[in-house]
Amino acid sequence: MRPGLEGYGRTDGGPRSPERAAVVAGLGAAVPETVVTNDDLARVLDTDDAWIRRRTGIRRRRAVAPGQATGDLAVEAARNALASAGAGGAGAVVLATSTPDQLCPATAPNVASRIGLGPVPAFDVQAVCTGFVYALASGAGLISLGVVDSVLVIGADAFSTLLDPEDRATRVVFGDGAGAVLLRAGSRTERGALLDFSLGSDGSAEDLIGMRAGGSRQRSTGLPAKVEDTYFSMQGQAVFKQAVSRMTESARDIAARTGWAVEEVDSFVFHQANARILTAVARRLGLPVERFRTNIAEVGNTVSASIPLALVDATARGELTPGQKVVLTGFGGGLTWGSTALVWPGPDPLLSELSTDAGDFLPKYR
Q1: Which stretches of sequence are listed as region ACP-binding (predicted)?
Q2: Catalytic residue, candidates 38, 271, 274, 295
Q3: Per-residue model confidence (pLDDT) at position 38
Q4: Catalytic residue status for 271
């Protein structure tokens, strides 16, 4: 265990302070072993590799094996985040997911138990593809208020379990995976501190992204669900426009709240929804697309896992370096959107291990 991390399992927290902040201390990732290539999908759908790449920028994605669930991926990613920080535990678990192991109870308490954290606070956050940013805000709040000294924030989804096997529009886009960040108590002046948040929603557009069956509204009718309502659906063109607009606005807002000009931001790590969306946002912000970190080609849209997976990948490839100004932005069903900002941490053991020898902390997608 590294010096200064011995108390990471505490749940009694520390004193409240306006300077107390949540600081990124560890990163972890996990993806299922099963690889689904564009050619695999072309054998069962009316599509081909060229069409999928042109429309989405995706080459392959991962899918859970029979019997494998979101919680399994979350546990692996969380353990890797703890290992990357050399930490013996965490004071709380916040799990962002839209595919919990079951509707009730939440998945986070079981994840905390399987990791061996004991009776720590643990709960789920459901904000679809913005879930990880909302979960970061929740974890940062627990730390800033002195409730706990550390939080495991996990984004995990097994979205392949919600897709209509005959729906080309959704099957080519989504993949399964999990990413985790260990937050520790620290100061706002430290590198790695989450400096502020910009969050929003628009429930009037909830029909653009979602799954109608399974909730209390459908069940209360007493009627069987329509087959099409048991699968995830998305109105692609409308979602594209909303995603570009909302993520652009959110990135600008968090930069302003942090006191940065958008042009000063070195790296943007956005929800990996679609390569064309990232390009459109970059154009609206007037910035080179090279500043936008992406791994969508290898894992697809992994919903709440997409931002932490992209963080791990970009760190391991040396695209995120100590001292960079970084903005994280998500957009998802609800509609929901949100951003946070930080100065990338290091130099420290976390960065040196991930950037030189990623080991088990990285998904094996190469």
Answers
A1: 272-276
A2: 271
A3: 97
A4: yes
